[in-house]
């Protein structure tokens, strides 16, 4: 399902992907794609692909990894739309195609957050790495960024316990709805461990 879904998705969406790429290049300096090391299945490191939504080197400017709101001046004009609709995640269809990710699964964290390295995750949290990471997942269509990372990991573990193909299809449909009705992208409060991050 992952192979077929990602291949069909890339073929159907290719004109749309080119339009987004052109818009990014036209409105801000820097590469079209943002690449970042993430933790995948069993803690293996891979490079995730996203459309760039922020200025180059954003992680080392201002609030660093934290993105408190859509008013963050590091976010580009096109990037603001892409982040709100999660369309910046579409290049991950290539990650799925090569077998690094699945269409549905726990979102892959950066190597150093919320824990510094796979080996530093508590035993209960390592369960989320027993499956390939997904472009979308149960946490993305339920809590998204409205809870702490540990609470999101608990939701990921619930997904693993409930895993089946029909459940994945349901999550994919809910993801499409979220594109047109985005929510929980940023928190109104400023608790660091609950804010949206560049790594999401």
From TrEMBL:
Keywords: Membrane, Transferase, Transmembrane, Transmembrane helix. Pfam families: Bac_transf. Residues 1-181 form the Bacterial sugar transferase domain. GO terms for molecular function: phosphotransferase activity, for other substituted phosphate groups. The chain crosses the membrane at residues 6-26. Belongs to the bacterial sugar transferase family. This is Sugar transferase. The lineage of its organism: Bacteria, Bacillati, Bacillota, Tissierellia, Tissierellales.
